Amino acid sequence: MKPEFENIPLVKAATRFEIEINGHFALIDYREMGDQIALVHTEAEPELAGTGAAIAVVEKTLTYIEENGKKLLPFCPYVFAYIKKHPEWKRIVDEKFEGYDKL
């Protein structure tokens, strides 16, 4: 994560995790089911394109999931690809996730 995003707080709203940068948002839609959190869709407003904001919200969300003892279901293709590139995060993926062996 770029240093400029480190002190930006992650906000957990009813259906999304989000960070705000200069009035613009990077977010991940999620569903929480017991001890599992399914990440469904990652998005950053066009004003944040190329800034690293989407990666920052992913990293902050993965940290939140781990710190809260939850298991990840990475349905979002962006999150799935991030975990493939950073296999150390596979530790929080639920082993029952259908694509687990592809990570």
TrEMBL record:
Coiled coil: none annotated. Residues 9-94 form the N-acetyltransferase domain. This is N-acetyltransferase domain-containing protein. The lineage of its organism: Bacteria, Pseudomonadati, Bacteroidota, Flavobacteriia, Flavobacteriales.
